[in-house]
Design a protein that fits this description.
Length: about 700
C-alpha cells in the first residue's frame, strides 16, 4: 500500500478496474479523475501497483494492492478489512468493468454501507477466454444486486452488461489533445524511416484478439498488390505482440509493417497517419476511432464499433471482407481541412464543422510573412494566423532562401489549409521578400507579420472593423519577453504630436504622437494597408536596406494614405528572439546601418519637409546598433561603428536633432574611440533604459 497525504474534508472515492497499462479505460478514467480531483479524493484498488498508469502517481494517490481472484480467501479478507476497519472511509466506489471477475468489490462495499456504488461497463462484451466469460455471467447478478448506480460508455455496452437499467456517461475527450500537428507528422515519419510519399495506415490498441490485428495483416498483404507505397503502423502492446510479428513475417510483409509498441504521444502518432483502421470484433465505444477523427483522419472500422463512434463524414464501416476493406482504404485519405478549426459533435447528425467566421461577409486580407531560417518559430506564427477569428485571409509565406527545414514545415502545414501559399526565392533580404509577397497578394488589404512573431486571435478582425473610409489602420503592439511576461507598447494618446509636417495636418487624420517615440507607428507590423497604396509601385520597401526599412516604408505609407485610423488595442505580439536579425550584430549589420544612413541622407535632400523624421530614424538606428554591441565583451566591432558616425552624411543627420544629452555624449564617445568612457556610457544606457536614453524621457 502506498500512503499519501489525504484531504479529509473532501469525499473519498475508491476506484477499481484499472490495469497496469495505457489502455482506453485507464486513459478515459484518468481524464475524469483529473477534472474532478478538486472535488473529491481518489484512491485506487488494483491487483498491481499501477506503475505504468502515470496519472495515479502524479496525483500521489493511495493505491491498495489486493490479491487476485486466484487467491479467493486472501482476497475476501483484504476487501473485508479495507472496508470494515475504518467505517465510513469511502463515500463512493467506482468499479470499471471490461468483464465481471471483480464484482466482489461491489459486494464488499455494500456490506460496509458505502452510499454510492457505481458499476460502469466499458465494453460491449466480456473480455477474456471461456473461464472469464463463465464467471462474468455468473457475477452479473452480483454486480446488479450490489450496485445502485449503473453506467455505460455506450448503448451497446450498457445493454450487454446491465440490460435496460443504466445511464450512458460519455467518455471525456479534449479536442485540443488530439488536434492534427503537421510538425509531429514530419518528426514521427522520420523516426520510422517513412518518406512523404508513403501512404501510412495505422491503428491504436492493445494487442489482443478483440482488436483483430491478424485480419489487418491479411488486408495489408492484399493492399500492397494494388498500392505498393502503403505502410501499416500498429501502436500498442499486449500478449499477441510476438505472434503478430511472426504472422507478418509469414505473410512476407514485415518490411511494410511497423510495430510501434506502447506510446504516450498518441496525438503525434495519429498526425503521421493517412488513414485509421479499426477492425475490432467488438468495442465498448471505440475511443481510438473518435480520437482519430478529432485528428482529422478518415476511419475505416468494423461493424463491431458502435455507431456512437461515428462523429464525422469520413467514417466507414465494413464487414470482415478483405476486398471491401481495401476499396474503403484506397478511397480514403486525410482530408484538407482548415487547420486551427475545431471538430464538433451534434446529437442529431454527424458532421465536421470548422469554428470559423463567414468567408463571404468580409474582404480578403493578405498576410505576408517573410521567412529566413525560421524552422523554430514558423509553426507558432502560422498557428496564430490560422486561428484568427476572422478567417477570410490568405497567408503568403515568402521563403528567402532558407537553409533549414522551414519551407518543409510550411508545406506540411499547408496540406491542411488551402489559405497558405509558399513562395521561394534566392536569398535577397526582407525588403525583396515583402515586395514579392505584395505582388502575389490577392487581398483587398495587406498585413505584414514576421516569422517569429504572433497575432492575438482577434487581430485581423479588430483592424478590419476600423477600416471603413481609410486606407491604413494602425494598432497597438505587445512585446513578449523570454520570461513569458508581456509589456504593452501602447499608442499613448497623451503624447501630443511634435511634428509640424504638412501631411499630419489633414483634419481627417488622428493626431499622432512623435514618430520616433511611437514604435507602434514606425513598424509595418500591427497594421493593415489598403492594396491601393501599392498600385504602380507607389509604396514599396527599399531594396538593399537591412536595418530601419520599416521606418522608411511607414513615412511613405503615411504620406500616401488618404486617411488613417488607429485601434488602441494590441493586435500584434513581438516575440523577443535572440536569433532575430535585428538583435544580431556583426560587420554586415554595421554595413546595413551605414547603407541606411546614406539613404536617409539622400531622402533628406529630396524631401526636406521630412528631415526631422529621417534624422530621428538615423540616430535611433545607430544607438540601437550600439546597444546590441554592448552585449559583447569585445570592442572589436566599435572601430567600424566609429568610422561610420564620423562620416559627413551622419554629421548632417545629427544637425538640429533635439535628443537627450546622454545620446549625444555616447555618439561623441564612439567618434573619439575613448574606450573607458564608452564603457561608462554603456552602463548609463543600461541603467536608464534605451528608450529613455535616446529620447530623454527621464
Amino acid at each position: 500500500m502506498v500512503s499519501s497525504a489525504l484531504d479529509h474534508n473532501k469525499p473519498r472515492v475508491l476506484v477499481s478496474g484499472l490495469s497496469n497499462g495505457l489502455g482506453g479505460t485507464e486513459i478515459v478514467v484518468g481524464r475524469y479523475i483529473k477534472a474532478l480531483s478538486s472535488y473529491a479524493t481518489f484512491e485506487f484498488l488494483a491487483t498491481s501497483d499501477l506503475s505504468d498508469v502515470a496519472f495515479v502517481h502524479e496525483m500521489n494517490s493511495e493505491i491498495h494492492i489486493c490479491p487476485d481472484i486466484d487467491r479467493p480467501i486472501k482476497r475476501f479478507e483484504y476487501l473485508d478489512h479495507l472496508f470494515q476497519d475504518e467505517p465510513n472511509r469511502y463515500q463512493a466506489v467506482w468499479c470499471n468493468f471490461n468483464h465481471l471477475l471483480y464484482a466482489d468489490v461491489l459486494r464488499a462495499a455494500q456490506r460496509a454501507n458505502v452510499s454510492v456504488r457505481i458499476a460502469h461497463s466499458r465494453n460491449s462484451r466480456f473480455l477474456g477466454g471461456l473461464p472469464t466469460q463463465v464467471i462474468s455471467r455468473f457475477n452479473r447478478h452480483v454486480a446488479l444486486r450490489n450496485s445502485n448506480v449503473r453506467l455505460a460508455c455506450s448503448k451497446e455496452a450498457g445493454s450487454y452488461f446491465w440490460g435496460d437499467n443504466f445511464q450512458i456517461l460519455p467518455n471525456a475527450l479534449d479536442f485540443n489533445d488530439m488536434e492534427y500537428d503537421p510538425v509531429s507528422r514530419i518528426v514521427i515519419r522520420e523516426e520510422f524511416g517513412l518518406s512523404p510519399k508513403d501512404f501510412l495506415i495505422g491503428t491504436v490498441g492493445r494487442l489482443t484478439s478483440q482488436k483483430n490485428h491478424i485480419f489487418l495483416l491479411k488486408i495489408m498483404k492484399e493492399l500492397l498488390t494494388v498500392k505498393s507505397n502503403c505502410k501499416l503502423m500498429i501502436v500498442g502492446d499486449g500478449p499477441l505482440h510476438k505472434s503478430l510479428q511472426e504472422s507478418a513475417a509469414t505473410l512476407g510483409i514485415s518490411s511494410s509493417v511497423l510495430f510501434a509498441g506502447e506510446r504516450k504521444d498518441i496525438k503525434d502518432i495519429l498526425s503521421s497517419f493517412d488513414c485509421f483502421v479499426f477492425p475490432s470484433t467488438f468495442e465498448g465505444l471505440g475511443v481510438a476511432a473518435i480520437e482519430a477523427q478529432l485528428n482529422g483522419l478518415p476511419c475505416v472500422c468494423s461493424f463491431g464499433v458502435p455507431d456512437a463512434a461515428d462523429i464525422s463524414d469520413k467514417f466507414l464501416k465494413c464487414s470482415f471482407n478483405v476486398a471491401e476493406w481495401i476499396d474503403a482504404i484506397i478511397s480514403m485519405n486525410r482530408p484538407n481541412k482548415l487547420a486551427g478549426g475545431r471538430l464538433f459533435m451534434t446529437s442529431t447528425s454527424k458532421q465536421v464543422n470548422c469554428c470559423q467566421s463567414s468567408l463571404v461577409d468580409n474582404p480578403l486580407v493578405s498576410v505576408i510573412v517573410p521567412m529566413y531560417n525560421a524552422e523554430k518559430t514558423i509553426q507558432k506564427t502560422l498557428n496564430s494566423l490560422q486561428c484568427q477569428s476572422m478567417s477570410n485571409i490568405e497567408i503568403i509565406i515568402v521563403d528567402d532562401g532558407s537553409t533549414d527545414r522551414g519551407a518543409e514545415l510550411v508545406m506540411a502545414i499547408a496540406e491542411g489549409d488551402n489559405r497558405i501559399k509558399l513562395i521561394s526565392q534566392n536569398n535577397s533580404g526582407v525588403c525583396v521578400a515583402r515586395n514579392r509577397g505584395v505582388d502575389e497578394a490577392s487581398g483587398d488589404w495587406v498585413a505584414f507579420v514576421d516569422a517569429d512573431d504572433i497575432l492575438p486571435i482577434n487581430a485581423v478582425r479588430l483592424l478590419l472593423e476600423s477600416s471603413d473610409g481609410c486606407s491604413l489602420v494602425v494598432g497597438a503592439l505587445l512585446n513578449e519577453h523570454c520570461d513569458n511576461s508581456s509589456k504593452a507598447i501602447s499608442i499613448g494618446w497623451e503624447t501630443a504630436c511634435s511634428l509640424s509636417l504638412a501631411f499630419w495636418d489633414n483634419v481627417n487624420k488622428v493626431p499622432f504622437p512623435s514618430f520616433a517615440n511611437g514604435v507602434a507607428f514606425r513598424s509595418v507590423c500591427g497594421k493593415i494597408f489598403n492594396k491601393s497604396l501599392f498600385r504602380n509601385g507607389s509604396l514599396k520597401f527599399e531594396d538593399g536596406i537591412r536595418f530601419g526599412e520599416d521606418a522608411l516604408f511607414m513615412v511613405d505609407a503615411y504620406r500616401l494614405a488618404e486617411n488613417v485610423k488607429v485601434v488602441d488595442s494590441a493586435v500584434y505580439c513581438y516575440v523577443n528572439n535572440s536569433d532575430s536579425v535585428t538583435r544580431n550584430t556583426d560587420i554586415s549589420a554595421i554595413e546595413g546601418v551605414d547603407n541606411l544612413l546614406i539613404k536617409l541622407y539622400e531622402l533628406c535632400l529630396v524631401n526636406p519637409d521630412l528631415n526631422e523624421l529621417y534624422k530621428q530614424s538615423a540616430v535611433r538606428e545607430v544607438l540601437s546598433l550600439i546597444r546590441n554591441l554592448a552585449r559583447f565583451e569585445s570592442n572589436q566591432l566599435y572601430m567600424p561603428v566609429s568610422n561610420m558616425v564620423c562620416q559627413p552624411y551622419f554629421s548632417y543627420l545629427m544637425e538640429g536633432f533635439a535628443s537627450h544629452r546622454y545620446s549625444r555624449r555616447l555618439i561623441s564617445e564612439v567618434k573619439n574611440r575613448i574606450t573607458i568612457r564608452l564603457l561608462l556610457a554603456r552602463r548609463v544606457m543600461a541603467a536608464i533604459g534605451f528608450t529613455k536614453f535616446v529620447y530623454g524621457v527621464c
